[in-house]
Here is the input.
Amino acid sequence: MLRRTLVAAAIAWTGTALPSGALAQGKTTRIVVSFPPGGPVDFVARALAEVLGKELGQAVIVDNKAGANGAIGAGEVARALPDGSTLWLTSVGAAAINPSLYDKLAYDMARDFAPVSLVVNNVELLVVHPADPAKDAAEFVANSKKNKEPTSMASSGIGSIPHLAIEQLGEASGANLLHVPYKGAAPAITDVMGGQVAGFFGDVPGLIAHVRGGKLRAIGLASASRHPALPNVRTLAEQGIANVDTNNWYALFAPAKTPPATIAALNDAVRRALGQPALQAKLLDTGAEPAPSTPAELAALLERDTKKWAKLIRDKKIKAE
Here is the structure.
């Protein structure tokens, strides 16, 4: 049902660029972000907005509507006029995880939104303190099995992508792990650097500066391929640990009932913006991988991840606090 509804919103997209005249001219396009200023989603939104404005020929601003695990920002966009002037840039959590994590949500992805484009991929990176004896993820898992006490792993909160990556790692490898939830990634990362917890899965953009600075050591990637900014870090699959595939992607959605021609024009502008070498370099330098898609491809990705995380959340009996 989810895929049918979302694909219906995207089905008119044919891959043929439509002129930005399909959008209301002279208006300001607003990108709503469900996080405070200064974070990784906000950074991507502002980097994209600058270039997207030139492609659309109009001002593009970022409007931060943080709170309620994405529901405030989602509600703002769901209620907006479906004319292409209001977009929602969300991470995977609010779009594909929250529907299974919470018994009640104020928004419904299939009912309230139309997919526009995937923007970036943010795969999860496994990091440890530089003094940790494990040279890679396989050794980290092996050491956890030797220890009498479980190996502690921090996350940014129950039901977060870092938490789900820990659950995937334990299930795939049989590692003896203890999940230690924090209120956000920053304190979790601080405690890994301080040696209070052994490991952490996090988005590459939030960790790459610490890895480059020698404060953390990267020992594995939860992705199908290596990261261009960290070419020497092997994937978990390369290390013999399969089925740990966490991607905290960011994507753009418009209000439901936005005309197909408007969706197509927005998609074309986003794809052209993300194709600009300067923007690509800016995003890649932070660890975010530009990844534009068609609306139908985003709809299919949302469906796959919604099902994947729903099964894990159900199997592990994970409940939001």
